Automatic annotation (TrEMBL):
<dbReference type="Pfam" id="PF01029">
    <property type="entry name" value="NusB"/>
</dbReference>
<dbReference type="GO" id="GO:0005829">
    <property type="term" value="C:cytosol"/>
</dbReference>
<dbReference type="InterPro" id="IPR011605">
    <property type="entry name" value="NusB_fam"/>
</dbReference>
<dbReference type="InterPro" id="IPR006027">
    <property type="entry name" value="NusB_RsmB_TIM44"/>
</dbReference>
<dbReference type="InterPro" id="IPR035926">
    <property type="entry name" value="NusB-like_sf"/>
</dbReference>
<dbReference type="GO" id="GO:0003723">
    <property type="term" value="F:RNA binding"/>
</dbReference>
<comment type="similarity">
    <text>Belongs to the NusB family.</text>
</comment>
<protein>
    <submittedName>
        <fullName>Transcription antitermination factor NusB</fullName>
    </submittedName>
</protein>
<dbReference type="GO" id="GO:0006353">
    <property type="term" value="P:DNA-templated transcription termination"/>
</dbReference>
<keyword id="KW-0694">RNA-binding</keyword>
<feature type="domain" description="NusB/RsmB/TIM44">
    <location>
        <begin position="194"/>
        <end position="287"/>
    </location>
</feature>
<keyword id="KW-0805">Transcription regulation</keyword>
<keyword id="KW-0804">Transcription</keyword>
<dbReference type="GO" id="GO:0031564">
    <property type="term" value="P:transcription antitermination"/>
</dbReference>
<keyword id="KW-0889">Transcription antitermination</keyword>
Length: 303
């Protein structure tokens, strides 16, 4: 939807160029994911460096010489640091943001260390993987993912990440929750696509919508008598075209799935009235398509 909208705004008709932009944007989501996960590893390393340097001070205190090492010994953070899947992905995608922006890692670490959550964790004598994991999950959701400076950095680094940050944070938190002690594969870098069919769908939906926009528009224009076509927002028209494209050209996608997906997108990106408008138009279209036998869905339960 965003790529098609950008095409409209720029007046571009270069399908291959815009398709490359679409897939580059999708691929960059994995870079965002790796940058955020690696921040957890770097925070632990910075604290370990700090404790090491403090112990070597000329006038080191008892606290400097015998610090509380619970945080840098956190089993989840150590597991992430030693994780082959993560190390390979970081090297393959050439992710080295924190070596160039360690000041932000120091800010995140300082924010963590002054938090009641961190102080409570250090004071707690509980020693278990599950205890460590709960702290990291809480730390990530409350202090890392919610950090405005980190958000600003990611937004400035790549503007297209604005909409991807919540998704990536949710996936990372889900993965942290699923981690098990001593199981190397309990954390693995997520593949960008579920399978080849997943990637093909993105390409096909983009192409089939763009190449058939006029034809798809004809399906809804006469069915919106109470709406002035000139006043329907461009985002709404793109969503309608994409939904109709799924109705008519993707036989394996259930009608209800299509409607629900575009209602969710409308709530996120369009005007408050958009979801009502789109729901009404799509609902009427489905009834008409069923009467005229234009819906050719295959498989059980697809209507």
């Amino acid at each position: 939807m965003q790529t098609i909208y950008a095409m409209h705004q720029s007046g571009s008709d270069q399908l291959e160029k815009e398709e490359k932009f679409l897939f580059a944007s999708i691929e960059s989501i994995q870079d965002l994911y790796l940058i955020v996960v690696s921040a957890l590893v770097e925070i632990r390393k910075k604290e370990e460096d700090f404790l090491e340097k403090a112990s070597k001070k000329h006038l080191a205190t008892e606290k400097d010489l015998k610090p509380n090492r619970k945080f840098i010994s956190n089993r989840v953070l150590l597991a992430l640091e030693k994780n082959n899947s993560l190390s390979i992905a970081l090297e393959k995608r050439k992710i080295n943001n924190w070596s160039q922006n360690d000041d932000l890692i120091l800010i995140l670490l300082e924010n963590v260390k002054k938090s009641p959550l961190y102080l409570s964790y250090l004071a707690d004598k509980t020693d278990s993987f599950e205890h460590d994991k709960k702290f990291i999950m809480d730390m990530f959701s409350e202090l890392i993912a919610a950090n405005e400076k980190l958000y600003d950095y990611l937004e400035d680094y790549k503007l297209t990440w604005i909409d991807d940050i919540p998704l990536v944070n949710t996936m990372i938190l889900k993965q942290l929750k699923q981690m098990d002690e001593g199981v190397e594969k309990s954390f693995a870098v997520l593949p960008l696509y579920k399978d080849a069919e997943d990637k093909d769908f993105a390409r096909d939906l983009f192409r089939k919508t763009v190449l058939n926009e006029n034809e798809l528009a004809k399906e809804y224009i006469d069915r919106t008598p109470n709406w002035d076509p000139e006043r329907i927002s461009e985002v709404d028209t793109i969503m309608l075209k994409m939904a109709i494209c799924e109705f008519l050209r993707f036989p394996s996608i259930p009608v209800k799935v299509t409607i629900n997906e575009y209602l969710e997108i409308a709530k996120e990106y369009a005007t408050p009235k958009s979801s009502i408008f789109i729901n009404g138009v799509l609902d009427n279209l489905v009834k008409d398509f069923q009467k005229t036998d234009k819906l050719k869905k295959t498989g059980r339960g697809l209507m």
